[in-house]
Amino acid sequence: MVRPTAVIGLGRSGISAARLLHAQGHRVWLLEQRQTPQLHGTAAVLRQEGLHVRLNCSLASLEQLNPQAVVLSPGVCWTEPVLVQLRRRGVPIYGETELAWQAMASAPWIGVTGTNGKTTITAMVGHLLQQAGRDAPICGNSGAAATELALDCHGGRRPDWVVAELSSFQVEASPTLTPRIGVWSTLTPDHLDRHGSFAAYGAIKAALVTRSAVPVLNGDDPQIWRRRNRWPTARWITCCGGAALQPHRQAALSIEEGMVTAPTGPLFSADVLPLPGRHNRLNMLLATAAVLEAGLEPRQIAAGLRSFPGVPHRLETIARHQGVTYINDSK
């Protein structure tokens, strides 16, 4: 009998990963540590689709299952002892995003990572491409699960671009994911309980950029800037004026006298984006650099930025009353 492929986690990404594998002809087992009435209902539906589901089982049950491969949901720690043992025995273990990449590698990806800013940049890149008439779905850490989109592509969809927000958890478990364009927004200490150290966390983020054909990087972030020698051909952006990066690098985009400016000259006013804050200007420059690489014209980008609504819970204007503006920044 063919050894099964195990999918860990009965959440949205785990379910879509299992369905994709099943559509590809794999024998699939879904394993979930919890059991609730809702999960029992979900499991019953999946069993009717031809999937095997086990609830209330630990990762240790992988030893008995003897899978040919294991697909992890993002919340499952990469360094769990049973996963380490399986890797040592040569069992492929990778994340749900890696599975999606393998299924959609023919489409160009824009991968966005960073401690902060990645959700807004991902939404902005997707919005700009879509407003310009491109089929550019958003997936990963925001939007659809990456394997949900991959399942659409298995059914015949051919997007112009895949725009993926990628957390450190997803990058860590996606060793061959190679975006056409890789955007890195910021780097500050985060998820150290999972990754062990700031150096390890930063190395995971850097790995995605290194694998990207065109890195797009924030020259105003000191932790990213200090690593600049790793990416001699990267596109660097800065809010501080292009001279701020010289003589080390020429800015691909900067803000000069209120204008978003490329080495060839001004492109459009920096005030086209209706969102407040210097950080949103950085987000705008990173998104603009990415979509320029994707083939958009400055006039298309300016028009898209004017209509960008922002992201919920991030400096989101929710009401104006008697001269007072109420803003939700609860993220």
Give a written overview of the molecule:
By secondary structure, the chain is α/β, with parallel strands linked by helices. The protein has 2 domains: 5-91, 3-Layer(aba) Sandwich (Rossmann fold); 103-306, UDP-N-acetylmuramoyl-L-alanine:D-glutamate ligase (3-Layer(aba) Sandwich). The protein is 37% helix and 20% strand. It has 13 helices and 16 strands. The strands form 3 sheets. A 9-stranded mixed sheet has the order 7-8-6-9-10-11-12-13-14, with helices on both faces. A 5-stranded parallel sheet has the order 3-2-1-4-5. A two-stranded antiparallel sheet has the order 15-16. β13 (259-262) and β14 form a beta hairpin. It is elongated. The mean pLDDT is 93.
Keywords for this structure?
single chain, 331 residues, alpha/beta, Rossmann fold, 2 domains, 9-stranded mixed beta sheet, 5-stranded parallel beta sheet, 13 helices, 16 strands, elongated
Helix content: 25-40%
- CATH secondary-structure class of the largest domain: Alpha Beta
Give the strand order of the largest sheet, numbering strands 1, 2, ... along the chain.
Answer: 7-8-6-9-10-11-12-13-14
In oligomeric terms, what are we looking at?
single chain
Overall outline: elongated
What is the N-to-C order of secondary-structure elements (H for helix, E for strand)?
Answer: EHEHEHEHEHEHEHEHEHHEHEEEEHHEE
Helix-and-strand structural type: alpha/beta
Write out the CATH superfamily name of the largest domain.
Mur-like, catalytic domain
